[in-house]
Each structure stands twice: as structure tokens, then as C-alpha cells.
Amino acid sequence: MKYQELGYPCRNFCIMASERFLDPLDQKQKFALSSFVAGGTGIIAIIDIESGNGERIEIPADEGAWALLCWNNERLLVGTCSRYGYLHCLDLKTRTWLPSLKDEHEKYFWNLVEGSDGRIYGGTWPGGVLLRYNPVEHKLENMGRMSPYEGNNYTRPLYNGVTGKIFLTSGYKNTHMVSWDIEGEKYTKFGNEGTMVKEANEHFVCGINDKSKELYFYDPYTLEQIEDVVNYEKMNLANIKNPYILDYLRNFKYTGEHGGPNVRKPKWDPAEVKCGVAGQSYYIEQPDGSREYKRIPVEAPPTAILTVAYDGKDTIWGSSGLGQTIFSYNINTGEYNNTLEVSTFGGEVYGICPIEDRLYLTSYCGGDHTVYYPDRPWEQGINPKSIEVLNPRYIRPHTRSVIGADGNVWTGWMANYGTYGGAISKIDVKTDHVSVYENIIPEQGIESIVAGKNAVFFSTTGQGNGLPYRNIPVWLVKMDYEGNVLWKEEFDTEHKLGSMAIIDDLLFVKTGNEITVFDANSMNRITVLNYQVTDNGPPLTGLLAYDHETLVVFHCREALFVKVPGFEIIKKVETGSDIRYAIVGDKKQIYFAKGSLLCKLG
Hints:
Methylamine Dehydrogenase, Chain H, five-stranded antiparallel β-sheet
């Protein structure tokens, strides 16, 4: 048995940022888009607004870019993620790249803004620092951390609307607002903790607290609070004295997004023809508000496959590592298709469960539960249809989703950014009703989940969105199909829980560097499986129930076929990849992804 490469069926645009500029090559207005390529190298698409023609330029390195800024119509600055955190600079006149710059400790650039000193500032992850770029000297400097708190790993977003200042948010362990003094080169923490910068201009700085639903206003130079606190769901504008704040509040609409300038949407003058992004398309908007939608005029790149599922009807379904699209692949013909976005939130589809004539999907970062009927026409918001959103309580379906013996869809979740916690959700496939079981293990997210004959089993983790990993004791839990906890056990920090699989009445759980086998009924330990670690790759990356008498252990870039219940290895196959998730087809082929490449064993 060898693995076979099937091709690259997962293709999409994942537009993270856009920018406008006057092209020095032909003096025409251009619209630039940065598209993230999960598992590959990001691209920049440059669109001629008048003609609709496009250029496709691959960035020198990294998967993509949240940060995009045109400097002086001479250079397009690209701040990348998610592996290296480069600042790439494209000379627009020659379409050549200057030497790439990088701070050795940072992996993400967020938005870029130009300060009143003519230098470019950017926020980062995981160091939570402020970076400064000198475009004249082509030099990148680290201005230091923007918070006194350990665990504040993010500096985003940045605002440049005040002369001599850069305003930003430091998060998420102890989220707070920051004023950076450009001349004095020092930061000042101000305002209430838990508050993010929402707007900054010469008249006021607005902070927002999503939990309390309040807006705060500050003098941009003294940082003293001005005006009363405003609840944005119950606004009373009668006591607002500042005319600029009053005008701001009259037009305020809560969106849940705090992106800052030059994130996704460049600024346009009211009389201009504008451009914007709509998923896999872009649009031209006339001054009267009318819009014309067009497909992005360059080839969509292959992107990393996040999740795969088999529908039992010759079709593999999968999702992209980012971008909210899914794809279908016919195992007989090799034909594939990619959809538009299944959710209006950013992020990706983690869970895909084919049931009869439909797919149930769970997505990050809106905590979205969605149902899609592939044989019906695509109508955004209708088919696919969102049936329940867990945002802001829970946003990441970290476990993917499984179909229980009750026929329903079960998913394990992680809590919102800046919060440790998790939940289990159940989609009743007869009614599409979603039940949520919360605080089963307080302040712990859900790491993995598997469904048995009479119960679902899940493990917890010390991981949190936007928070440092906590090396704490975690839990293995057994829950019946009514949501009642039947059994749970705590594991010490040496036994971090991971992948799980179940075959008949045997539950297999990765516990540290070994696999513990449980009786799924009594939860008694039966045995422990250990395998020699090699230099080929990481150990015990995934488990797969192959059939009723075979477990597949993905270990050090091999598939180990283990006889059940004897537990001896009967076959080894090289996979060439660190496989975490795989599926079995109806002819006992195993399908898995190597980045953007779909493969099969058998």
C-alpha cells in the first residue's frame, strides 16, 4: 500500500487586506488585494479599476498579509503572517521586491499606518511590540512591548489620526489601550482595562468595551476622559456636549470588528469610484452607491486543506485553511469544485458532517453552525443557511465535528479571544436546533471529541484564543447523548490529551507520548500502547478507526495499522506528512491532506 497524490482541489481567495494607489507605471488607479494562501505563499492581486485587468504577484515568503499600505505611490508595503512576520516592499515602478525585513521574534504583522513623522508603524504577534519602518533608509526597528503584562501578545489595531501619536490596543490577557508618543518614543497605558481603541482623531479617542457594551471618550493629548460613558445599545445623546463626539455617535453602528485604518478597506473620497471585496469577488461602487460585482481577475491559488469528510456517494468534501469556502472532489473522475463563503464571519470551516442530502458545517470565528444542501441552488444566506451562532461566547470549533450514534452533530469549542473556556454543541438534524452544554470543565477549551455507541467522549486543553498556553491538569469526559456527564477524570500535566478514536467498545486516547486504551463502557484502563519515536516527524499526530478490527496510528510520518484487540502492528506505510485528520472511503481507501495536496492510501 502506497499513498497516491490526487491533486489540488482546494482553491480560493482569502482577502485579508486591500489598498488603493496611483500606479507609477501607467498613472492609472489600481486596487491591490492581499490573499492568504494557507500552507503556501501568499499573493498580491493588482486590479486596474477602469479596465478590470489584473496582475498576480507572489510575495517573497510567508502565507499572506493582514497589513497592506501604499507609501507615496512608490512602494506597496506588505506585512505578513503567519509563520515569519516579514515586511516586504514592492517597488511599484519596477515591480521588483526590495530586500525583505523582519524582526526575529515576530510572526504576524497586523495593520500598518503612517505616522506624522513619515515613518510606518505596525503591530505584531506574539511579542506584542510596536515596529517602526523608515522608508527612506529601508530600516525596520523594534520599539518594544506595549504593555507591562505578560500574556499581552497582540498589538492591534493601530490608529494614526492624531498628530504626534499612534494609538493602539494591547491584548488579550489584560486588554488595554495605548498611546505612543512619536517624539518621546514611549508608550502610555490609559483608560479602563478590557477596553479597545475604536477611533482616534484630533478631537477624541474612542474606546470600546464589548463585554460592558460601553464607549469611552478621551482627549487625544491629555488622555483625560471627556463626556459620560455611553452604552452603545441604549444611547442617550441629550447630554453629549462635544459636537464631534455627537456626530460620531449619531453614525455609530456596532459591528464587532475593531480593525483600524488600512485593514481590509482603504479610504476613498466621497466623489470617487470605489472598490471593495466580497469574498471571491470584488465590486466597483459608483458615487451614487450603485455596485457592480466582478470576479477577481487572477487565478485562485491552491490553499491548505483543513478538514475532509466523505459523503458515501463518491464525493469528498473539504475546507480551506482560511477563507470560509469548501470544496467537493469526485473520487471517480477527479473533478472538483469550490464554493463561495459559507459564513459571513472570517475564519474557516472546521467541521463537515454529510448527512443524507445535506452538509452540516461548523466555522471559526463566528461560532457558526450552518446547513448546506449541495443539490439545491446556491443562495447566500439561504443555502447555505446559518442555524445558530455562538459568537461571542465561543468562536473556534477546535475539535472539528462528529456524527453521534444518535445521528446528530457534536462539536467541541473554544471560547472567545481573551477568555479560557469551552463548550459542547449538538445539532439536532431533524429540527436543526442547536443545544449548547457549557462550563463542563470551567475555563478549559475542548481539545478533541469522538462518538461511541452510547456516549460522546471529549478531552480538554489549557489552550485559549489569543492567550498563552497553560500547562495545567486537563480532563477526559464521557457524556451521554442527552448532555449528561457520566464520567470524568483529571490527568496531570505530563499526560496532555490529544487525538482519540473508538472501535466498538474500545476508546483510544493520546495521553502524552503514549496511547491509553479504555473500556468505553466502564472507563477502566485496558492497556497502554507505546511506539518508537524516530527523526522522521512528530509522534502520535492522529488516530483513525479504519474498520471494526483495525486502528491506524499516524506516527512519525508513517501510518501504523494496529490489529484490535491484539494491538500488534500488522502494516506500516509512509505518509510523507504529519497527519492529524484522515477519513476512510467506502472502498477502504484512506484520504488525507498534505498541505494543499489531497492524497489517498490504498
